[in-house]
Amino acid sequence: TTIRENIMFNTPRAAINFNDMVGGGEIVERNLIFNSCRESGDHGPINTWDRQPFLTTLRDGVTPTFDPVPRTIRNNFIFANYGASQGVDNDDGSSWHHIHNNVWYASQGFKMDYGGHDSVYEDNLVLSYPYDAQDCFDFANFLEDHGHIARRNRCLVGLGHKMDSGCGDPSCAVPFPETKDTNELIGTFYSSCGDKSLHLESNRYYTPDGKAMIRFEDKLFSLQEVQKKCGLEIGSTSDKLPDEETMIGWASQVLGMSKIGTIQATE
Q: Which pTM does this prediction carry?
């Protein structure tokens, strides 16, 4: 299945919902999505679940396997406003996704819960409005050798307002920041510091004061501490928020947009 070059808006729940992976191989690309989840929360403009494994031969055309062909989500411009959370809400064990070269606005970043695994998240731009402490990423515990990869992404936090789950209307957004800690928080880990299954590297984080903090359960650590103690986020950096012109330039670059407004796919 390919979902390409659509404009989707004013939906009561997700604009696109994938219920389980089946054999995989779907492509979602070059879509504009906004005003989703207008009557619900704890959901995304693109929402995925992966609760039931399926035995297929789709991966190589011959061998029966429970490993699907990865689902590709690329070159989409997604607003996670109203009651939405992440631009792509990888919920309930969602696995085997390749999510790249997307722009998510008023959104949270990369999520894993309930046993999700083996996804790659790279070269995305997230302009985050805090939702529930998952600003740039939120990772539960991974199975050994079945972690995610998150690399070369840009994530900006502290842009102006906070949108709670089930907000339902932009008027319920509240001024941000609430505290200095939330203003600097880029993500949360529920796995151990030394989880070797998770690979985070060469990401760029931006906050109002340039400091990036990561939560391990109830404790906060700086990005530099996580790099030194945990071996995560090697090559990643933090800096102060750029001006609007720079943000627009980054978004155009990620989406493959030229100055005259044409869009080219990034394979």
A: 0.91
